[in-house]
Amino acid sequence: MRSLPAKSQHVMPGQLFASSEPTAVTTIVGSCVAICLWDAATGVGGMNHYVLPECPGPGMDSARFADTACQRLLERLRELGVSSRALQAHVVGGACLISAFRDRGTHLGAQNVRAGLAFLRAEGIQIAQMDTGGTRGRKIVFRTSDGGISIQPL
Hints:
alpha+beta; CATH 3.30.1330.200; five-stranded mixed beta sheet; four-stranded mixed beta sheet; 2 helices; about 20% helix; globular
């Protein structure tokens, strides 16, 4: 991995970050999912970290939910001059950390991954890399400047 940018930002569950400045963006996911979006032409990128696949009702929208978190990240990137067709995505997380749910394909982590992938497909965003599922969390370091990502199993 290349050296990290001087600026860094940690994204907590239910948060997102986007920047045109070179930034190392970090988070830790388990059943949650982080989607990193990056535009190679502009060097603009960002990350969200959502906890649940969809908002349960009107007035409850929050970046804790995939539908809201993905839409808000895309809006911030567009404000920074990015076209959604130029974006590439890294999708990370969606583990099943509770052994009792591992035999089911409908565990929370899998639902979170499906929700993020559905959003990306609907927006025509290319998926550059996926590291999803499994039984362990992951630490992510994403570089907004060049779209590079480091994923460490926990």
